[in-house]
Amino acid sequence: MDILQKIQAELGPDEKKRASADQWTNVRAYDAYLEAKKGFKTFNADPTFEKWKSIYAHIQKAIDIDSQYADFYWFLSSWWLLGQGNNFISAKEALAGAEDAIEKGLALERDSAEMHIASAHLNQLKWDWEASKREAKRAVELAPGDPDAHNWYAVALFTLGFYDESIAEMKRAIREDPLFDNSGYQLGYCYFFARRYDEAIAILREGLQRTPNDNVAQSFLALSYAMKGMRAEASTEADKSLASLPTSEKGLYHLNIAVVYAQICRRKDALSLLNECLASRKGKPIDTYTIAEIYAAMGDKDEAFKWLEKTYQDRLSTMFQIKFDPLLDNIRSDPRFKDYLKKAGFEK
């Protein structure tokens, strides 16, 4: 889920409070801040490494001008976490950068909901699931009208197996801001992993009518069809999503489509797309957890566990899905699976 949903809004609750108090002390810092926000929005529409990297200069400029404004450090932590989420940098790099930014931001403003949201995300990266839940809950307490706080609390609840509570929390986020989940992806995601596929399909189809070019929503719609055994529909949605993706570099979005192909027995297509992704990302970070899903869906247990081990070694935040992920059902009964639940901190 996307921590940057908040950044895409014009002004968040804390930001409105500070803006109304006229606490901006430097117009140049504010201008750099706005440029960073613009950069995040541009990146969301076209998530490339170059666009992600360019945002940093604006954030750092704002901090250099005014190092006493907590939101600048929230932006910086979000930038680091976004880089890891898109496999531009390693989890280790993201962890070090985001942790430093969050510590500085919280030192300036202990009761910033945004900083506690960032801390919830950070603790996911650290595989400290209870701490992530605690930080997200604190964000909700500080800003009950902030949809992103409810969003991250929903993620934390889901990670620990509280599915109904998570769905209710996500619905609260949407009630606070109906445009927060315009594509239906966030709520559809919750329904998908709760194995409520009919509801996921309904939400995602409705959302895609509003935002037809949302590749993440479309891939989850394809996956939902696949899990129901509706192979023709899954294949159509996956092909449609793949056709709209950039061909220059194949990354996470392409891997998501490979998962669909694996699930609907298009093994040749799944492996072809996977190999293209591996070649494109050679020498760069890649989401090894999603590769484990691909092999698990095809019933190749040894390869699935090989890539799960890489996920464990790389400390990827996507490991939070392992407890409930239906795409790993083919390997869940294997004795090795329990070892990874322990390694990820879900069992003792």
Write the layout of secondary structure elements.
Blueprint: H1 13-20, H2 27-45, H3 49-65, H4 70-85, H5 91-108, H6 113-125, H7 129-142, H8 147-159, H9 163-176, H10 185-193, H11 197-210, H12 215-227, H13 231-243, H14 252-263, H15 267-280, H16 288-297, H17 301-314, H18 335-343
Helix pairs in contact: 2-3, 3-4, 4-5, 4-6, 5-6, 6-7, 6-8, 7-8, 8-9, 9-10, 10-11, 10-12, 11-12, 12-13, 12-14, 13-14, 14-15, 14-16, 16-17, 17-18
Short description:
This protein has 18 helices and no strands. The protein has helices spanning 13-20, 27-45, 49-65, 70-85, 91-108, 113-125, 129-142, 147-159, 163-176, 185-193, 197-210, 215-227, 231-243, 252-263, 267-280, 288-297, 301-314, 335-343.
The helix content, as a percent range, equals: 55-70%
Give the overall pLDDT as a whole number: 88
Number of strands: 0
The top level CATH class name of the domain at 1-142:
Mainly Alpha
Q: How large is the share of residues in beta strands? A: under 5%
What's the total helix number? 18
Distance between the termini: 27 Å
Helix-strand topology string = HHHHHHHHHHHHHHHHHH
| Oligomer class | single chain
The CATH superfamily of the domain at 1-142 is known as: Tetratricopeptide repeat domain
CATH topology of the domain at 1-142: Serine Threonine Protein Phosphatase 5, Tetratricopeptide repeat
The gyration radius over C-alpha positions equals 20 Å
